[in-house]
Amino acid sequence: MAPVKQRHVPVMLSEVLQYLNPQKGEVYVDATFGNGGYSKAILEAEDCKVIALDRDPNVRVRANEMKNMYGARFEFRAGQFGNFADLVPEKINGAVFDIGVSSMQLDDAERGFSFAKEAALDMRMSCEGTSAADIVNGYGEKELADLIYEFGEERKSRQIAARIVAARHQKPIETTTELANIIYGVIHKRAGEIDPATRTFQALRIAVNDELSELVRGLNGAASRLYSGGRLVVVDFHSLEDRIVKNFMKENGGKKIRVSKYAPELVQDDSLFASVSKVIVPTAAECAQNPRARSAKLRYAVRR
To answer: Hey, how many other C-beta atoms are within 10 angstroms of the C-beta on 100?
Structure first.
């Protein structure tokens, strides 16, 4: 297996370290290991331990490198973060999630995540199970339209689904560029605007990897494993993910009650989190250096 490419730049790294606040002797989980950017930064920041999770078998080479570098301070556990509670049965002091497809997955043309590169229509983070090609060639027209609308927030989902069904009557749709060109037949590319294939490819990727359900399960699992004062830090990149993260933290942040108009507001003590942050966005300087950061949002919560 070829080594993982070193291109991935961790988004909002300084903010992640600030709000995770690693301390000596404590245990943290990097729930989306990828190329190990967050894991390495946490281990360098303090003499602590990091447990890294990832479903992608291609990250094992990088995980082995990290193990050689940090020894017992680093541990890799293969699996999807939706199974957080099973993968991490012990209590921890903090967890960080970087949600969505990683740069190294996008850069690997063979994975089929990018419409900019000719490849088999795959998109499976775990390299097993139902692929994007299976969905594109197997779903009914209404199913496809609903999927593209719900997970891609694509207004022209019905027209795109109709074109897909018409095209696959001629031959199966097998590659990323085949699908992208079908989409361009519905929405024309315009300079300076988001590529018309973006939302449909996002929808397929989310469906293939069950990303939104995984996120809900992962957040609940991580919160259940935090010690009192433990921190949950999440970086996400589009509105569907961010809505889930925002609502999860808000619903578990406790209701503010006022005893009287003269007394300060109190937070009910049966809530999961003692405090929940407002949304934090990357600096203009980071966005200029790393275009992937432009849509990033960070939220964090502290366990009661």
So the answer is: 23
